[in-house]
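Because discrete structure vocabularies remain unfamiliar, it helps to consider an illustrative case, giving the amino acid sequence and backbone structure tokens:
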Amino acid sequence: MINIFNLAISLKPLNCYAYANMSWVLSELLEAPEPLFSQTVHELELASGSRGIDVKLSTELDQNYQLKARELGLDQHDTHGQELYHALQAITEKHDLFLARSLGIKDPHNVAETLTKIKAKVDKLDIPMTCWAIKHSVAKKLLKQTPPKKVMKLLGYRSVDSMLKRESIDELFGSLRFVESDQWLIRFVKTYKKLQPQDFETRKIKIIELPENRWGIKASEYVSNKRLNITHLKEMGVVVLLPMPVSKLRGVCLAVLLLTLHYIDEIRTYSALFKLEQVRPDFAANLINTLINDPSDSFSLLGRPVHWRILKKHFGRSRVGYLPEVFEPHIQVDDMLWRRAEEVLYKIEPALKFWESMEYSGVSYGGKPVSFNLMDNAVNYCNNLDYSERVTHHLQNSLWNELLTRYISHKDLEDMLLQQLDQGQTKYGILTSLNGGKI
């Protein structure tokens, strides 16, 4: 269950259940506890002066289900959860094959070919790709001060200077995540304590594919443990594609491309936050705390946490060409641009328009949702998960973010968050995402 409402707050004995009939669709999809969820919605409505946002969203979700059930050839009034799930898995398989064909991939199950084609495609995409990252010269100094001995041993270097002279700094930083220990990584990030805004620069996000002949064994251990072959470096603006421990994998094209686009957006999200933080006297401490702990007490709305990601999404899509003064002078409109991964994908392969604006849609069966979120379906298909094992947390994250964004669009609630920004209350770093977050 998504533990969205785990803050210690006192529940007043008001008639929360009067609002439950309006919010039950959302609370079931989120697997959120009642009556706390309904009370939260009620308080948001009172504070925003706008009633019925949850009802409108619930109605939209029902309409989305009706539409997609018809497109899948199902009876929207008599479809069981397993039937819907398997129909979604079937169209996910079809769309993975279509996407692979559009990328020029001969064998859609061939991992090595797919990773290479995806990198080549993403490098050419017309999407926002700039970020604010540590300068390469500064990154080299950081590694020189704290040599990554396991990386050096793996690559056959005795001297850190020799390694820095011959190796790509982006590739070296990428390797730290799966070669060095978690304890070493934390110690290394703490060496960022002397970083200043002038140690950063604006540059294009880089996608790197690590060769199997150099990194295969260590990368395979990481991928097998994390069940994920992609990682990203927020402070370096790098997305890393790791070699997989298998040569063939179904659904790899759709899953990897989706995750790559997701991490590009993640880097830009944190980049905007770091740019905003640069005016704070404790910039480096905030940067370190964000990368290591991802603390959950930065922004709040009526006593509930609000992720920086939600603010970025709100200002990135609500008013083109507009940003409040609190973001000036360091945050520009381009820094806040937000684009759904599905929008990018259906421009590559038009058949994937099926998933457009469905990232927060689903329908509940027996207290657990069947997700229309493309990421959930890609993960389920790629891992060949049974109905009882299905992943739904991408839907739940997206739905909660969407609900909160719709309330924030009302001026009173927007002003509450802007006041926190103006008072420098980002000093504790960024909020954790619903399913957690680490460096």
Q: What stands out?
A: The first strand starts at residue 130 and ends at 134.
